[in-house]
Amino acid sequence: MGKVAVAFAAAAVVAACSVAALMVGRRMKSRRKWRTVVEILKELEDACDTPVGRLRQVVDAMAVEMHAGLASEGGSKLKMLLTFVDDLPNGTEKGTYYALHLGGTYFRILRVHLGGQRSYLDVQDVERHPIPSHLMNSTSEVLFNFLAFSLERFIEKEGNGSSSQGVKRELAFTFSFPVKHTSISSGVLIKWTKGFEISEMVGKDIAECLQGALNRRGLDMHVAALVNDTVGALSLGYYHDPDTVVAVVFGTGSNACYLERTDAIIKCQGLLTTSGSMVVNMEWGNFWSSHLPRTSYDIDLDAESSNSNDMGFEKMISGMYLGDIVRRVILRMSQESDVFGPTSSVLSEPYLLRTNSVSVMHEDDTPELQEVARILKDLGVADVPLKVRKLVVKICDVVTRRAGRLAAAGIAGILKKIGRDGSGGITSGRSRNEIQMQKRTVVAVEGGLYMNYTMFREYMEEALVEILGEEVSQYVVVKAMEDGSSIGSALLVASLQSS
Ligand code: BGC
C-alpha cells in the first residue's frame, strides 16, 4: 500500500470513529435527557401519592375541620355556611318555576313544570351558554344587566302558549360562589372564586342585585331563593330519593353541602327549624390540611392565581385547575430536557391547557395516541414521538388520580362527621345508637368534571370503597345529578311556595 493510500485509510478510520463517537455521545445525551423527564415524573408521582392511610388522615382532618367550622365563626378554613334551607322538596310540589344558574364557566336558564307527583317533573327549555369572559372582571351592573337580558330573551321565547303568562314568575338564582345568607332569599357575597374578580360586589346582596336588574328591564319575575349549586343538587337528589343527605359539585370549582342537625351548629345557638336540621354549605374548596399531598406545581399555581392562599383543596381537585397542573409539569419537562422539542412560549400561558383536553388525552384510545398529538400541537408542541405522548398520558393520570382520591376522602370526611362512615363519627351530639346503625346514604354529585371525565369518576368511586371498606360502601350510593343544581333550585322555590 502506498503512503497516500495509508493516509486515506487512516483518515477514514478517524472519521468513522468520530462519527461513531458523535452518535454514541448524542445517544448518551438523549438518554440523559430522557432520564431527566423520567425523574421529574417519578418526583411528581411520589409527591402526589395518596395511599389509603394518607386518605384516612384527610378524612379525619375534614371531619375535624367541619366540627370546628360549626363551633365558631372563623373557627376553621371551612366556613360551614347556613343556607336557611331546612325543608327539601318532597315531590308534592306543583306549578311552573324558573332557575338561573351562574356557575364558573357556564350560565344556564331553565323552566320546570311540576305536577304534584315525583314522577311529574318536566324540565323545559334548558339553555346553557358559556359565560363571556369579559363579564368575569366587569362591574356588578354589567354582570346583572347581562343576566337580566338573558332571562328576558328566554321568556320572550316562551310565546303566548306559556302556562305562566300573566302570573309573576318565581325564580331561583343558583349562584355558585360563597354567600353569607340572612334568609333563603338574601345573602351577601363573601368572596369570588374560580377567576371572577368584580371586587365591588363583595359584601353586596346578590339576590337584590339580580332583582334590581330584572326590575330595571321591567321583567315580572321574583327572585324567590338564592341557592348555592351544591344545595340545588341536594334538593334534586332529595326530591328523587329522601336518603340523599350530601351533595357535592365537581365542576370548574368544587364544594359540598349536607343536611346537619341544628343542635350540631353550635355557632348558632338557639337555631330552630321545623325539621330540626338545616343544609350547611361547607365551601370545602377552602379546606386545608397538612396531610394533603402538595407539589411544587400546586404552590406555583396558587402563588400565581388571582386568589392565592385561598381555595387550596379546590385547586387540587377541580376542573379549573387540573389542566394547569398538567401544563406546569409539561412545561418544566420541556425546559429541563428537549424531549418536547424547542420550548414553546405557548406552553407558558396559564390555563391554556383545559381540563377537558386533559380528559381527552387521558382517555385517548387510538393506537398512536393521535388525540394527545393533536392537543400537544395546539400547545405549540408538534411531532413528539409516541413514548413522549405516553409520558403526557401518565402525567394526566397522576394528577387526576390524586384529584379523584382526595375528592373521595372529602366525601368520606362528611360521612364521618354525620356518623355514616361506619366508624362511629366524631363527637357531634349524636347518640350511640344512631352512630351504630348504618343507614343507606345517598350522595348527589354533579358538575362537568364528574360527569364528563370518566377516569376522575372511577378514581373517586374506587377510593371511596377503599376508604369505607366493602361493607359500609354498600350503604353509600353516589348518584349523578345532571343539571341538578339548576333543576333542584327551582324545586326548592316550588317547595317554599307550597309550604
Ligand atoms: C364556590 C362554591 C361552589 C363551587 C362549585 C366554588 O368555587 O366557592 O360556592 O359551590 O365552586 O361550583
Automatic annotation (TrEMBL):
Where in or outside the cell it occurs: the entry states: Mitochondrion outer membrane
| Pfam families membership | Hexokinase_1, Hexokinase_2
Report the source organism: Microthlaspi erraticum
What pathway annotation does it carry?
A: Carbohydrate degradation; glycolysis; D-glyceraldehyde 3-phosphate and glycerone phosphate from D-glucose: step 1/4; Carbohydrate metabolism; hexose metabolism
At the top of the EC hierarchy, this enzyme's class is: transferase
What are the UniProt keywords, alphabetically? ATP-binding, Glycolysis, Kinase, Membrane, Mitochondrion, Mitochondrion outer membrane, Nucleotide-binding, Transferase
Q: Where is the Hexokinase N-terminal domain?
A: 41-236
* Segments forming domain Hexokinase C-terminal: 246-494
Swiss-Prot/TrEMBL GO biological process terms: glycolytic process; hexose metabolic process; intracellular glucose homeostasis
Residues folding into a coiled coil are none
| Annotated Gene Ontology cellular component terms | cytosol; mitochondrial outer membrane
Main location (coarse class): mitochondrion
Name recorded for this polypeptide = Phosphotransferase
What InterPro entries does the database record attribute to this sequence?
ATPase_NBD, Hexokinase, Hexokinase_C, Hexokinase_N
- Organism domain of life: Eukaryota
The record's EC number reads 2.7.1.-
**GO molecular function (one):** hexokinase activity
